[in-house]
Amino acid sequence: MCPLWFRGMALNPERTAELHTLRERLGIHATSLELLDRALTHSSILVDPNAPEHDYESLEFLGDAAIGFAVAHHIFLSHPDRTPGEYSRMRAKLVSRKTLARVGLRFDLGPYIRLGKGEELSGGRQRKALLGDCLEAVIGAVYLSEGWDSTRDFIERLLEEEYAGATHLDQVWDFKSRLQHYCQAERMALPRFDVIRSAGPDHCKEFEVEVYLQDEPMGLGAGKSKKEAEQGAARAALERIGVHFGEIET
Fold this sequence. Notes:
By secondary structure, the protein is mostly helical. It has helices at residues 13-26, 33-39, 57-78, 84-94, 97-106, 117-121, 128-146, 148-158, 160-164, 166-172, 175-185, 226-241; strands at 192-199, 206-213, 216-223. A hairpin with a 6-residue loop joins strand 1 (192-199) and strand 2 (206-213).
């Protein structure tokens, strides 16, 4: 049901039928149609006569928080023993605007978005940012209507393909392994990582690590664990060598 505090415009039969179709296709059967309509309403339409009172932006804020937490929960359980920095980079990739736009396109949200005439004529329906924003707003609508467990399940379905590729993403971010593979391919001794500084109390230490290739210093890294500092040092060495990182940048 729609929360009592929310007041949107009454939905006409055509719009109601559209949203029923989308709701069934997304598997969010208990989500309020009024909130789903709001999640798919762009601010450009608010100037039109008989326009709704609200656009998707507040729901987008809520959905952004929900998907961030759901993704963090998933990668923490699926990829144990990663460093905080690695988790942060993986999450950033999975919830990036590019990723969310791709998911919104895959689930064909574009035709359901309500736009003002100017935004429609300027090609707003095809804008990746708009698709990603509306997807987050839909997640916000699901959360308000169905609660956290249903929202987490919904996000799992939305990101099923992206999660399937997260193992590769995790491997790509493992700079230390990539540096070791480089050394093996070049018939060099494996890199040596030395802790050159550690500071701070035991519960909040900061480490600095230097990596050596054939006894030559090649890069520095810092982090809240030795492992994170080693990853930073390995990345610096790979950059110095000139190894291309491909799709890992966010």
